[in-house]
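Task 17 of the worksheet. Students: predict the tertiary structure of the chain below and write it out as structure tokens. Keep your answer in the requested format; marks are given for formatting as well as content.
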Amino acid sequence: MSTANDVVLSTRNGHVVTWTINLPDQRNPISGDDVVERLVELVDEANGDIETRVVILTGAGSAFSAGGNVKDMADRTGMFAGAPHALRDGYRRGIQRLPKAVYHCEVPIIVAVNGPAVGAGCDLAMMCDMRIASSTAFFAESFVKLGIIPGDGGAWLLPRAVGAARAAEMAFTGDRVDAATALDWGMVSQVVEPEKLLDAARELAGRVAVNPPNALRMTKKLLREGQRVDLDTLLELSASLQALSHHSADHREALSAFLERRTGNFTGE
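Model answer:
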């Protein structure tokens, strides 16, 4: 019998945790409450566990995520049921919890886009910090094709990933962007053959995970805050976080490792 945890699997290898959206027969929709709850839960776990230094997010089967469940949309069931005020509350209490959780996860997230990333699936990939795509993947901000709008923060996320003009092109046409174009646009940093995707994600994760965990989390915080505050505010925050960094045991260990030309052993202290 399946459990709520089965909709997104979580596995650990050292300091790297992999989350796999596990509804391959449905092409991994993420609009259901069970998927939302599970991803929010996993983010909370990662935030509270200093042993988790980086997360890989991917999908089971041939798709990364088809986004919303179109059958539920057509049947007006689940989060798509009810009068306008009920639908509004459904979005706010449902899928809109994902950008608030995933985007603000304290741990760096690498998304390994193994296939189509459509609608909310495209936006989920944009919530992550680093993106690697299979050569068979494509991205589509396709809400307009269904006569709806990005209800999950895509209008905020996508321009920050590809720029205003390209985000507008994707959102206004709903057209697919293949992996090669995504690489050219800077939407992803690598494109690899399907069988090499997870290996590439793990290799990148390993290069991240060797670093002090609190420094990683604070660096991510600065990168996120830098998208919305002015330079003076970011410099003030940087000075405060830097003071914390200089007084950490991991900083002293990093200095020793550098001077002794060895690999550091970091504990999060």
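Marker's comment: DSSP finds twelve helices and nine strands in the chain. The longest strand covers residues 8-13.
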